[in-house]
Structures are given as structure tokens and as C-alpha cells.
Write a structure and sequence with these properties.
This protein is of the alpha/beta class. It has one domain: Spore Coat Polysaccharide Biosynthesis Protein SpsA, Chain A (Alpha-Beta Complex). An 8-stranded mixed β-sheet has the order 3-2-1-4-7-6-8-5. The chain is built from 11 helices and 8 strands. Helices cover about 45% and strands about 20% of the residues.
Length: about 230
Amino acid sequence: MDGAHTPEPGLSIIVPVLNEAAGITATLQALAPLRTRGVELIVADGGSSDGSGERARPWADQVLAAPRGRARQMNTGATVAHGPVLLFLHADTRLPDDALAQIDATLASGAAWGRFDVRISGRPWLLRVVAWCMNRRSCWTGIATGDQAIFVSRQAFDHVGGFPDQPLMEDVELSRRLLALGRPACLRGPVVTSGRRWETRGVWRTIFLMWQLRWRYWRGESPQALARDYL
């Protein structure tokens, strides 16, 4: 008699990391209950110099060395993922406890892809307004952001060619491609993402920068030029 067969996962979570040693263990530990339910967890390390990959290894099914760049890292993770559904999770973002149930119900209803509402953690009250605007804009336009934990069927992801090989706005471009297949499911969630980017740079300054970059991208500027101003 053959040995016990390990069933294929229904969902693969892909986490791109770059120098996230301070928080990666807590992020992955929060996903441990999903792993016990058969969810596959893949970490795609873009060349961290702080030991992020080593810290992630005990808490993930695979830790991959990937070319630097969030899009390239997520595509690398997707290449080896076994699940028929892929979820892309930022290293500073937490899923709701019932994320799996929300996703299963959504895909069973016929949706090919979707994202969660987001809540931004942090002290400034304006972060709640930022999150509300992000969620409303996303439902209206059908464009999801990486902070919202985009999930997509493997079939749809492969059909549109995965994430574009660009250093910024890869989430916007993926959304545009997926919109040709249907609008995203906008799940209430919420996922909770860190407000460190806004707090470090200044909330108003970051809001202005992000809207400016989106406008310039819509006008046709290259992601490479936008990335230089984002860093």
C-alpha cells in the first residue's frame, strides 16, 4: 500500500518580503491556523540582508530566493504554488480570521478574483479616512491595491500573464487585465495593514504622492520613472 497522500492545497498565499525581519515572524505565525487547514504558504524573498528568509523558514511551506521587485517576487511564488487559488499578501498585512470562508464563498459564486476592504493601523485619525477612500475607490473602479490582499484563481492569473514586470503599479496593471474577465469581488474583510509608510513619510504627504503617481501612471508615464519618485 502506498504511503499517505498529501492533498493539494485549495489556496496558496504568497508573501513577498524584503528586509522584513522585524515583523515577518509575527505575520507568518498569524497564518499558522490556515496552514493547519491545508493552505499553502510561500515566502518570496527578494534578497533580504537582514535574515528575513531565515526567520520565515520555520513558518512557511517554501521560502524562495526571487529576483528583487514585488511583481517578480510574487510571480516567482505563483510559479511554484500548488493551489488553484492564489492570494498575494504584503508582509505587513494581516488577514481576517474568516478569510478562507470569505474567499471560498466568493469563488463558489462564480467570481474569478477579488480583494478585501483594508483597515490601516496607526495613531493618526486620518488613516481611517485613507482606508475608507481606498475601499470605496476600489469598488467603484474595480482597481485593487496590494494592501487589499488580492486573490485570484490560478486560471485567471495565468490567462492574463500574471503580474507585469514593472517596479511600481503592478497591482493596478494586474487589476486592469483581470477586469477584462470580470469585476472583482469586494469582500468586507477587513485586512489590517501597517500605517508605517504614512506615519514615516507623513500622512498628507503620502496621500498627495500616491494620488500624483496614480495620475501620472494613468497619463502614460513609465513605471520606472514613477518608481524613482516613490523611493
